Amino acid sequence: MSNEAMKQNGQDETLLRVEHLCQYFGSNKAVDDVSFEVKRGEVFGLVGESGCGKTTTGRSIIRLYDITSGNIYFKGKRIAAGTQSYRDNIKAAKKRFREESEELKKQGSTGAAQIEEKKKQLDKYVAEQRELLKSARYDHKNCNKIYAGEALLEVEEKYKKLIAEASGAEKARLEKEFAYEKKIAKKQKFITKIQMIFQDPIASLDPRMTVGQIIAEGLVIRGETDKKKINEKVYQVLELVGLVREHAGRYPHEFSGGQRQRIGVARAVIMNPEMIIADEPVSALDVSIQAQVINLLDDLRHQMGLTVLFIAHDLSVVKYFSDRIGVMYFGKMVELATSDELFKHPLHPYTRSLLSAIPMPDPDYEKQRKRITYEPLKEHDYTTDKPSFREVLPGHFVHCNEEEFKRYQEQVQE
């Protein structure tokens, strides 16, 4: 289903929302205050140089890491929440109260009354932050349990009436089917609606398992026990990604890089996800094979109505495949816009630097092409005027301070 068709069907909705995502490893801020939304049915590209936090963002969304702070919502429900920001807020508020109290003490009785009022405000604020922290912990821990409970209710509603109206052999069949579906529903996890395709196709496949076992593993974990049904699904998905059912009995080392990545794609789509996170799925492949895998993902996107978070460092590939693009640098989202808008009006100097590195199959152009080097200390002065993520044009966001914001607005109006 195309994006246009989805919009006509009222499906132009936010499927994934990332709010102030922070992923810290000790003092290393791998992802720092990143926010964005992904609409249902679109391809959202995430680009930047190696080490900028793209993959960490994807892994945090799919909960391979417990996030430090921020919130991740999928289909309007919080699937991951960090707590560090709430603790930091409480700590900062207490520190600020102590500093203000020291100053107010010098004012005598007048200051004492103000201190008492500020203490009440502090207690109220701390109570609010602790309540938010408690809620974040609960959602993070219980979102899958809640989802499994909802899935179980759906199954019960579906079969209750059917069983009541049936009799004899048909009733026995429905009762058996109901018990099977109920067992699967109890093991459902919300996060399985998001699947990931990893960067290295050989490292992400278990060399001791056959292709059939690798692809079927998610179904088995979910509670599927009917081997005939599992095998049929494996064969269907193998053919869907351009392989044949005979490949199910082979091992990963018997395949080429492109075929292995197709196996990785098959393992993701067999779970019938609503969203796929493709973590540089073509960077380890030959150029000719890259195009095949990209076209495969594009075909699957339309056939299955998938939403894709496409992570890459090659802007030319991302432009071809993505509806909107977010540019990351050192853990920060520095620019976000539609694909056409980003290439037409690249505002942040790092984005311009990335675009200048794209080679073109034109000798005359290549002779004149000038590489732009991004040097943050020369480009920005954030000593007093601090930057934030601002909307320069509708849908076009840039990480900048007030002075840069005005300059960027002037640039796009020229």
Provide the structure class: alpha/beta
User: Distance N terminus to C terminus?
Assistant: 38 Å
Strand order of the largest sheet: 6-7-8-3-9-10-12-11
Helix content: 40-55%
Specify the overall morphology: flat
What ranges have pLDDT less than 50 throughout 5 or more consecutive residues?
1-10
Query: Which fold name fills CATH's third level, the topology of the domain at 38-55 and 189-323?
Result: Rossmann fold
Helix and strand element order? HEEEHEEHHHEHHHEHEHEEHHHHEEH
Strand content: 15-25%
Please state the CA-atom Rg, rounded to the nearest Å. 26 Å
Q: What about the largest sheet?
A: 8 strands, mixed
Number of helices: 15
CATH architecture of the domain at 38-55 and 189-323: 3-Layer(aba) Sandwich
Q: How many E-type strands? A: 12
**CATH classification class of the domain at 38-55 and 189-323:** Alpha Beta
CATH superfamily of the domain at 38-55 and 189-323: P-loop containing nucleotide triphosphate hydrolases
> Averaged pLDDT, please?
90
